[in-house]
Write a structure and sequence with these properties.
The structure holds two protein chains of two kinds. Chain A is of the alpha/beta class. Chain A folds into two domains: about 140 residues, Aspartate Aminotransferase, domain 1 (Alpha-Beta Complex), CATH 3.90.1150; about 240 residues, Type I PLP-dependent aspartate aminotransferase-like (Major domain) (Aspartate Aminotransferase, domain 2, 3-Layer(aba) Sandwich). Helices cover about 40% and strands about 15% of the residues of chain A. Chain A has 13 helices and 14 strands. By secondary structure, chain B is of the alpha/beta class. Chain B is about 25% helix and about 30% strand. In chain B, β1, α1 and β2 form a beta-alpha-beta unit. Chain B has eight helices and 17 strands. The chains are: A alpha/beta, B alpha/beta. Chains A and B meet through α10 and α13 of A and β2, α2, β3 and α4 of B.
Chain lengths: ~375, ~350
């Protein structure tokens, strides 16, 4: 038996998305062409755009297709910064690198000042900090970006409050983990910009979207044919766009069911290892993510052992050389680097079953014992 | 058996891992990240542990079809190997960091961690052989004399040898490359690593100067007469002739060689070639790779450099010291080097040279 508990990294494409993509792959026509085939593919793309807009609660014209969530985040952070005469960028301290790194790049190359919003020990941003910041320096802030939910802990952030505090300041949210999993309305939240990604919702890899208010023109990252509102050039990836819409429409993710599996798993873990700590447990979380610290272990050993027992999970972060590094998310929550390197992320998805949970729990005690032993020799 | 394959990203460890899989073992590939700030690319044959090497190791593991992980041993490597390298030089000795790495990292930190995690041993691409005998498992030279790495493995104790698998010892290097090609391993023609991996420039003296400083000191002859100056005694090696920059010629005009390095007074002593001659050596902290050596003299060979000659000798244990008396004197031998004793092609053991005469 092999059990996949890394759905936050990528989740299987749903059947209807595979079907839609297969059909689209056989179809000829550049959606920008004016002839019959081009018009037909264009229709598929625009149908998909409307479906996605309905799901996200935005206008179809507000959907800008990109090659990934990372690209959408880069376009938003850099575009909103370049669009403003102001120099301060405000992001949470637990952002994904796809938000954090473009912001840092702007600091290094474009004279930006970056302010990071701290989080509580439960992993929720400090709204008082943000209020005070907006009060004191609001006139200098070009944009605020806070993720809708965190990819490592699953902790959901109070975006509605962020937007309220921000007032006129543009707010972007990276909704890659949340979209299609928890109720999320671009319109009701009053967002300026939002990022979604295909492969986290049962769609294909290599497709994302930036949802950006109508009539807001931000400078492009990719120049060329101007296909997407002149903000993103490049031939539209029709098969992936169609498949993304099909995945969103299929609604394969049953939040209640996923949440139940996660609860069973966490209960089982705590029974087997009463010293385990579930990070972010006291905050509202996505249904499928469970980030657990196993004191006295090293997560890279645990991952190897889990993998050899055919259970796939993930450690927080790795550098370019593949070396496991302490997670900036867990450290922002106040964990030491040693403790943050003793943590694993298990993420459940639409395809998991109770049998998966039972199997993972059955191998866990031995894995933790061996992980503890391996860590003990390292300290000799 | 369940084993860890230490994969550097080179051709040898890749073929070793593939052979271990074929021998029926359950193999998991592990690349050791030994540098806290790895460089992106290798430059020629120098260095290892670059990001490119870790990619090469991962690709080899994927082609072989085994799981692959990276283990961060940078702290252990720095504390046990790099620090030791510097402190040995600072003390006027000439250490061999590859031996130290095998002793403290590859067959200690890695093997211990592997065993704790439920593995039975570690497979590496070293050229050496092991044999089972009534006295237990013993360590032997590889068949390829040019690649034989038994010298740098002579720091392994019996328990470590029991946990080690060296699948390449029976094959010549040239055939390993052919085999790698046949197995579809892209590293088949990757150049061998040379020199010290954590000194990618190859300039050991410069590397040491940057870290230990460069204090000017005297170069003296055997009478103590100052005949020149140096920029840091530890950048010299016993037997070194070139680069001394002496201003005063020897009375007989003969070339002079480094005889001694005195770190406390930061002095380099030079003298004539014949003064380099060593006919016996004494090593501390002996490690035996098989049955232990006793006080009774035995006949065998001693080797003092990784690819040096095996010299006829009589060896015995004198208290805590391993002693080798050479049949023919040897020119230029630095303390800090490893003396490795062989009985035919069997590695008897090793010790760190602390005294020569």
């Amino acid at each position: 038996m092999s059990v996949y508990l890394d759905h936050a990294a990528t989740t299987p494409m749903c059947e209807s998305a595979i079907g839609a993509m297969n059909t689209a792959l056989r179809k000829l026509g550049n959606p920008s062409s004016l002839h019959t085939q081009g018009r037909s593919t264009r229709k598929d793309v625009e149908d998909a755009r409307e479906k996605i807009a309905r799901a996200a609660h935005c206008q179809p014209s507000e959907v800008i297709f990109t090659g990934s969530g990372t690209e959408a985040n880069n376009a938003a952070i850099k575009g909103l910064y370049w669009n403003s005469p102001k120099k301060v960028i405000v992001v949470s301290s637990i952002e994904h690198h796809a938000v954090l790194d473009p912001a840092l790049w702007l600091v290094e190359h474009e004279g930006a000042e970056l302010i990071q919003i701290p989080v509580t020990s439960a992993g929720v941003i400090d709204l008082d900090f943000l209020s005070a910041l907006v009060t004191s320096r609001g006139s200098e802030i070009a944009l605020i970006s806070v993720m809708h939910s965190n990819n490592e802990t699953g902790v959901i952030q109070p975006i509605a409050e962020v937007v309220k505090i921000a007032g006129d300041i543009p707010v972007h949210t990276d909704a890659v983990q949340s979209f299609s999993k928890v109720p999320l309305s671009y319109k009701d939240l009053g967002l300026f910009a939002m990022t979604i990604s295909g492969h986290k919702v049962g769609g294909p890899l290599g497709i994302g979207a930036l949802i950006l208010r109508r009539a807001v023109e931000i400078p492009a990252l990719l120049h060329g044919g101007g296909q997407e509102r002149d903000i993103r050039s490049g031939t539209l990836n029709a098969p992936s766009i169609v498949a993304l819409a099909a995945a969103i429409e299929a609604q394969a993710y049953d939040a209640a069911e996923v949440s139940k599996l996660r609860s069973h798993f966490e209960e089982g873990v705590l029974r087997a290892r009463p010293d385990a700590v579930i990070n972010g447990q006291s905050a509202p979380r996505l249904p499928g993510i469970s980030n657990i610290t196993f004191p006295g272990t090293q997560s890279d050993s645990l991952l190897l052992l889990m993998d050899s027992e055919k259970v796939s999970c993930s450690t927080g972060a790795a550098c370019t050389a593949g070396v496991h590094r302490p997670s900036h998310v867990l450290m922002a929550m106040g964990l030491t680097d040693i403790v943050s390197q003793s943590s694993l992320r298990f993420s459940f998805g639409a395809t998991n079953t109770q049998a998966d949970v039972d199997y993972a729990l059955s191998v866990l005690p031995t894995v933790i014992e061996r992980g503890l032993a391996a860590n003990a020799v390292g300290k000799k | 058996m369940k084993i860890i394959a230490a994969m550097s990203g080179g051709v040898d460890s890749a073929v070793a891992a593939a052979r271990a899989v074929e021998a029926g073992h359950e193999v998991i590939g592990v690349h050791l990240a030994l540098s806290a700030n790895p460089q992106k690319y290798r430059s020629g044959a120098r260095g290892c542990c670059t990001i490119e090497d870790s990619h090469d190791a991962r690709r080899a593991a994927d082609v072989i079809g085994i799981p692959f992980y990276i283990w961060d041993m940078a702290d252990e490597f720095h504390d046990e190997v790099v620090e030791n390298f510097m402190s040995e030089y600072a003390a006027g000795r000439t250490p061999n960091p590859c031996l130290r790495c095998n002793e403290k990292i590859k067959f200690a930190a890695v093997l211990d961690r592997a065993k704790a995690m439920g593995f039975d041993g570690v497979v590496t691409g070293h050229y050496a052989r092991t044999r089972e005998s009534d006295a237990g498992r013993t360590l032997h030279r590889a068949v390829d004399p040019l690649k034989d790495q038994s010298y740098v493995l002579a720091v392994l104790n019996r328990e470590q040898i029991d946990g080690a698998i060296f699948p390449l010892g029976d094959t010549e290097k040239v055939d390993i490359r052919i085999e790698a090609e046949k197995r579809g391993l892209a590293v088949a023609q990757k150049p061998d690593s040379h020199d010290i991996c954590f000194v990618p420039s190859g300039d050991n003296a410069g590397w040491l100067r940057d870290r230990l400083g460069s204090e000017v000191g005297p170069i003296v002859d055997q009478d103590g007469t100052k005949i020149g100056e140096h920029n840091g005694a530890y950048t010299y090696t016993i037997g070194q002739r070139k680069g001394l920059g002496l201003s005063v010629a020897a009375p007989d005009g003969a070339p002079r060689f480094v005889l001694k390095i005195e770190p406390v007074t930061n002095t380099v002593v030079v003298g004539a070639r014949e003064d380099l001659a060593v006919s016996s050596m004494r090593g501390e902290k002996p490690i035996f790779c098989g049955p232990e050596v006793g006080a009774a003299p035995a006949r065998g060979f001693v080797q003092v450099r990784a690819h040096g000659a095996a010299l006829d000798c009589t060896y015995y244990l004198d208290g805590a010291h391993l002693v080798a008396e050479l049949d023919e004197p040897l020119l230029g031998l630095a303390t800090g080097q490893a003396m490795v004793i062989y009985d035919g092609d069997r590695v008897v053991g090793s010790a760190t040279i602390c005294e020569t005469a």
